[in-house]
Predict the structure.
Amino acid sequence: MNESGLARSQGGRRLVAKFDQRLSELIAAHYPDKRHRPGYAKLATQVGETTGGTISATCLWELATGKERNASLEQLDVPAEFFEVPPEYFFDDAAAERITSELRLATALRDTQVRNLASHADGLPPEALDALLTAASRSARATDTSSWPPTATSPRTSSSTPRISATSTGAGTASRSPRPARPVTSP
């Protein structure tokens, strides 16, 4: 797909219409504590240092706030590389839905109690797993768990954060990044 094809689909509808929302979700997922979330200047520097690509703080701000709707291929590729998602995440609803689900899992795995629960559940018979899932579903309905991405880390959260590595083929796994991890701070 050429650069102008990214900006518009059939009938003139913009494919990157949700770019701002999706970029903001990635930023919030990788920096869940708003108090420690970098500003756009610092984020642009981190993106450049990590990927070798360039994107200005102004461009990041414009993309994240919806002020810029005519993204180039590089403007899609550089943040995609930094956040370890395929560029399709920004303009393909199916890819975005799959990756958002993976980001939710990675976010949940930051919580020590979630990891402990999963560890204890490993090896249980199917009936016991069903009972755990039922109890978790009831608990989730009884509390407001609809807010995502998270706005702050829980005190139970570990500073060792699983990372998402997703490819355009649909294979996404939580893993440790082979390169130095970008700062994810805990209060």
